[in-house]
Structure formats: structure tokens, C-alpha cells
Amino acid sequence: MIRVAVIDDEPLARSGVIVRLARQADVTVIGEYGDGAAALSGLRELRPDLVFIDMRMPGMSGLDVLAALPAHERPMAILLTAYDSFAVRAFELRAVDYLLKPIDDERFAEALDRARQALAWRTSVPPAPVAAPDEPARWLNRFCVRVGRKTVYLAATEVEWIEADGDYATLHVGDKTHLLRESLQRLCERLDPALFMRVHRSAIVRIDCVTELQPLANRDAMLRLRSGTPLRASRTYIEPLLGRLRGESVAQSYLHDCVGKTSRD
Amino acid sequence: MKPAADSDIEALSSPPFWLPILAGLPIGLCLIVMALPVLGHGHATAYRTLYLLAFLMWIVPLTALQRGLWRRRTPLWAMALVLLATTYLMSLANNALGAALAVIAGWQPASEFEWTGLFSGLDGCWLALIAFCAIHAVVAYYAQLKQEQHRRLHMTALVRDAELRALRYQLRPHFLFNTLNAISALVAENRNREASDMIVRLGDFLRATLDGSQGHEVALADELALTETYLEIEKARLGERLRLKWQLGPDLLSARVPCLLLQPLVENAIHHGIARRTAAGELEIRIVREGDRLCLRLSNDTEPASPADAAPRASAIGLRNIRERLQKLYPGEHGFEAGPRPDGGFEVRVSLPFREASGLQDASA
After folding, report:
1. What is the pTM of this model?
2. Which of A72, A114, B130, B253 gives 20 to 30 Å between its CA and that of B191?
3. Does the distance separating the beta carbons of A101 and B253 come in below 8 Å?
């Protein structure tokens, strides 16, 4: 069990985190605090493994609280912030990730996974072995989509990129688009990671269609696909994407990206 | 309008006429100091006084000449040649004056006068005049630098203003309210996941709008990212009714564009075009490089009933805002056209000088 404390001066913000944590089987919330001073004494007493802590609070800021704790008592931290840029100092204070408000569920899951991995490392329990993607037969290699009344089969290699559309997904094939009744999440698990990769919460791209990558000021990146479509890539997917564009094997980067992202629920 | 503004800048970019002359006086002082040891020897006092007065006289036309050359944007080497030649002639004239003085005062008989004598011993006068030109150049350069700084500050203020106006105009209240309304509808229908997604996107968009405050130009990639965050919200709202067609040319992601250029244009096209249609509408965004220009074209379907009439007028404020900002950023170097398409849609074309972001620091032209 991961023992978690939630620190934010706004009760609704705290409950937003707590509700999301309640969906996780391996997490238990042992405390919540509304200000820095209360948090400081509470943290020393309860010694949680992980804290979700707001950067900006009246009196003591989140970083102040972490800095006030002696290093060996300092829990791992996920910072919550509305607009601040992420301080470098935060890394020294054992921050594993940060979440922007309003909180995106998917990013929340990622941050938690990151903390899980870091905790496993810290308690020197080897991370659970991951099955290598060695069964090519199980990858989806074609889609069947409806066009009017007929069913059309599309080879996966024809699809340039896939866009999330609620519980559906839009396949982009040249100038045409086809709607598929499947969530992006599901597709990400079923598509061959050697060919396709998720680059954003709402986009999967066929790797060989990416022709340009330009980093942005906020550490995201902009991609240009061969067809002339610009596509945003979020920072969490960029490292594995760069690896793949450099030609690293799937297994190497597969461990990095898909596992962390698909293992929730 | 434009030539007037140009001459304003020209007039301001050099210091007032008397300033370099005043700055040249220390050289006059140097001439006096250098003359001190020889005073009293023969007719040195008279010669030196003559040279000093001649120097003071020459710097007035010299200043005028140097400014004239600047104004005509003479290349540096040509300017150096002209000034060297002129100052040489001036020092020759000084020597001639000295010789004339000697002859008139009777210190030297006219028969002993030799033409070649005029060309020797020029160093004192000539160097002083050259030094004066150098001081003048430094003073003018400094003034120009100040002017540039001033212009840049002014520019920053304008950008700030544009940003604020952009936030006010472009993040139109109806866009915000429509989005909030869509979110509340999702909540009412218990589609919590989608509602929370939409809120996250709205947050992303607001953040991105606020992030772009470092300079008046950003890489095209940044502007595209902002536009995409915006489009994600519109896609969720309009669903199938919005069909997007992108055509982004190769090697343009690092091109410099004004921040908040594309997003407001896209919003305009959606708000006044696509969103008013009952049927699906297409928005085509084409960004290509043509020679040394970056060309953007947005073309969208509009409401079939009023192809040319309502849409342009309603969107006039947004478009005018962009036109004004382009005018401020690229005076005389931009192109902006907006109007109905012959087949009933609406089209906006923007062209800018193509420049690449070499780093993140802004370097205004």
C-alpha cells in the first residue's frame, strides 16, 4: 500500500485528488491538510510515502513545506500547480512529477505510476517484469470501418494518424477520415508499437509518417507529418518518440511509454 | 503616412547638430595643449591659433557632410573614403592658409614659397579632423542605440497592449460561455469524463495564451500548438461539423510569426463560418513558404444564405486587430487580405517576411 497525504488550501482541490486516488487499489489516503504549518507537523508524525502538494498556499508554499523537512523524513512529492513554471528546485526536494490544474485524469495516472516506480526502486523491489511484445500476430493489422452501407478494410499501414474523439477514434487516411468505435486507449494497446506510437492524450501517430519535430518552449513538441498535418506531442511521450525516431528497438522504448500509460484501471 | 514616419525616425536617430560639435571641442583643447611647448618659438602662436580656428570652422561643414552621407545610406567604405579625402583637402587648405599668412605677414618672401611644402606636415590638422569624424560617428551611433532601445520599449508596450486586446477580443466572451455551457451540458448528462476533459482543455488553452508573453514573435510551432489546444475544444463542441484540412509546408516549424496570429484567424473562421452552418463545413489551413515569404491562407465554408454579407462585417473587429498588429510588426512588409471566396466561402491570406527563429531570444529587425 502506498500511503498518501494530500495538501492543498482549497477543500475542493483536495477532494478532487482524493476522489481520483480512491479509484486506485494500491493507494490509501492517510491525511489531508489545508495549510503548510499543519502539513509540516502532520507529515513528520505520519511519514507518508507520497504527498500531493499544492505549490501556492497562503503562508508556507508547497516547496517551503518540503524544504522544511529533513531529507530522510521527506516524502516523495507530486506537485500541484495552476500556472507556476516548474521550479528546478523541486527536483532536489524529491518531486517526481507535477500536475497542472485543472487535473487531467490521464496525466494523474501517469504521475502516480511514476511515483509507484520510484517507490519500488527506493524500497529495492524489482519492478514487475513486463512481457516483451513478441507476438506479432496479436497486433491489429487492419481496421474495418463503415462507409455508408458497406464495410471497408484498411491496412494499418495506410493509416497516418489516429485522433481521439470521445469513445471513438478517427482514422486519418490521406485526405479521408474514418470513425472507429474504439477508444484511443484500447487502440494504443492493440497497435503494433513498432509502427504506431501515442504522442498526445488524443493522438496516435504512425512513426514513419513523422518528418519533423520542433521542441516548444513548454517542453512539449510540434510534429509535422508527411502529409503536412501539424500535430502536438506532449512532453511525456517525447523521449520515447525521439528514441523511436532515432531507430531504437521497440522493446527498449516500449518499457518507457506504453506500459506506464496503459496499466491504469 | 509612411514617409513621414520614416523621416521622423531619421531625424531622431542622429543627435542634435550642436552635440557632435560640442563633443569635438576636446580635440580643439588637445590642439591647444599640444601647441603649448612650442608657443613663443618664432611665429608658432600665430600658426597654431590659425589652425585651431580653421579646425573649429571646418567641423561645421564636416558634420553636415557626414550626416548627409548617413542620410543617403552611403556604404561604410565609400563614406570612409569621402571623409578621408575631404579632411585631407581641408588640412591642405589649412597649410595653404598658413603659407598665405606667412607671405602676407612678410615672414617669408613669396619667392621662397614651394608648392610641395603644402603637402608636408599635414598630420596635426588631418588627424584632428579624422578624430572628429570618429567622435561624431560614436556619438551618432550611441544616439541610434538609445533610439533603438526606446523603440523596443515602445514595441513591448504595444505588444502588451495587443496581448491584452487579444485576450479580450479573441478569447471572445461567447467562446468562453459556449464552452462553459457545453461543459455544464456534459455534467447534466452525467458525462463526467468528457466534462472534465473539456475543462482540462480550456485550462490548457488559457495557459497557452498566457505563456506566449515572452516576445512579439514566436516559432510557428508554438503558434500551431496554441491553435491545436483551441481546436481541441472546438472539435469537442462541434464534432463532425468541423472538418479540418491542414497543409503545412516542410521546414517551417521554426519560422517566426507574431504570437496569436493563427489562433484568432482560426477562431474567426470557425465562429463566423463553420459554427453558423447546419451542415458540416471545411476549414482549410495552408501554410507554405514562397521564396522569402511565409504565406498563410485560411479558407472556410460559410453559411449558405449570406455568403458575402454578414460574415465579413461581424468578423471585422478580429481581422482589424490582426491587420493592425501586422502593420506594427512588419511595416510595409506584410500582406493581409480577407474576403469572400467566389464560390461562397471566406478566405484570409496573410504573408510575412520569412525569418527563422535562430534561438529563443527575440531580435526585432
Report:
1. 0.63
2. A114
3. no
